[in-house]
């Protein structure tokens, strides 16, 4: 389970056996959601946050924090996914403790 970011206590990661579409998981205090990235001609055209069957999803301020994070870091997340799953590179974990503006 490669951990790629922690943002305000939200752990953002991939599972080791991921599949397309490119997506990332976010976990906080027993809650978990995922964000799927839809890419056309190399550009992210949409990000959908989805619940995961059998798990309680992020809600309230933590869901808002996750959405804000995705807005700022989507390109980096997609690049880390490609680096890890396509090129089999090691990826660095980044911890962000200050709120994104």
Q: What topology emerges from the helices and strands here?
A:
Elements: E1 3-7, E2 10-13, E3 23-28, E4 31-40, E5 43-51, H1 60-85, E6 94-96
Parallel strand pairs: 1-6
Antiparallel strand pairs: 1-2, 2-3, 3-4, 4-5
Account of the protein in words:
A six-stranded mixed β-sheet has the order 5-4-3-2-1-6, with helices on one face. The chain has one helix and six strands, in the order βββββαβ. The protein has one domain (3-96). The protein is globular and about 35 Å long. The protein is α+β, with helices and mostly antiparallel strands.
Write a brief structural summary.
The protein has 101 residues and is an alpha+beta fold. The chain contains one helix and six strands.
Helices and strands, in order, run as EEEEEHE
Round the Cα radius of gyration to an integer and report it: 13 Å
Tell me the major beta sheet. 6 strands, mixed
Question: Globular, elongated, flat, extended or rod-shaped: what is the shape?
Answer: globular
Q: Indicate the structural class.
A: alpha+beta
> What does the average pLDDT come to?
94
State the end-to-end distance: 29 Å
Fraction of residues in helices?
25-40%
Low-confidence stretches: none
The side-by-side strand order for the widest beta sheet comes to 5-4-3-2-1-6
Q: Can you count the beta strands? A: 6
Which properties best describe this structure?
1 helix, six-stranded mixed β-sheet, globular, 101 residues, 6 strands, alpha+beta
């Amino acid at each position: 389970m490669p951990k790629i970011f922690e943002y305000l206590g939200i752990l953002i990661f991939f599972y080791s056996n991921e599949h397309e579409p490119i997506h990332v998981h976010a976990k906080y205090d027993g809650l978990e959601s995922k964000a799927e990235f839809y890419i056309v001609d190399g550009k992210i055209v949409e990000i959908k946050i989805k619940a995961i069957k059998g798990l309680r999803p992020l809600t309230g301020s933590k869901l808002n924090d996750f959405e804000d994070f995705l807005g700022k870091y989507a390109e980096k997340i997609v690049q880390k996914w490609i680096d890890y799953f396509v090129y089999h590179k090691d990826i660095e974990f980044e911890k962000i403790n200050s709120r994104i503006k």
